Amino acid sequence: SCCCCVFQVIGTPSEETWPGVNSLPHFKPDRFTVYSPKKLRQAWNKLGYVDHGEELASRFLQCFPKNRLSAQAALNHEYFSNLPPRLCELQDISSIFTVPNVKLQTESGDSIQVCARRNSQGKASSGGKH
Asked: I need a surface site. Which of 15, 80, 82, 125 has the fewest CB within 10 A?
């Protein structure tokens, strides 16, 4: 099942890692192989190429809901520290490309990422990697 694939990466939940999991109606501990958690970059190696990417992803991928990072708290995570502050001030319907020096940058393969970089004075400059 899909749960087994997730458990292979983040570990099979137990009462120690998720208090009350054994009492959940659809959780049958005897039906799951017990896996230990591993680094997320072992499953998705690109997480190791982006500053703070693996740490942010691991804060979101928590079985125990109370341990998950909230979206509001994530906005203050170091992963976003290289982005211009004006991105956080945009209205919901505004394009991120109205912020100076924000552009798309292709990676190897087909994926595209938004990038911007600050210079030593804290201002955004183009041409950086995020």
From this structure: 15
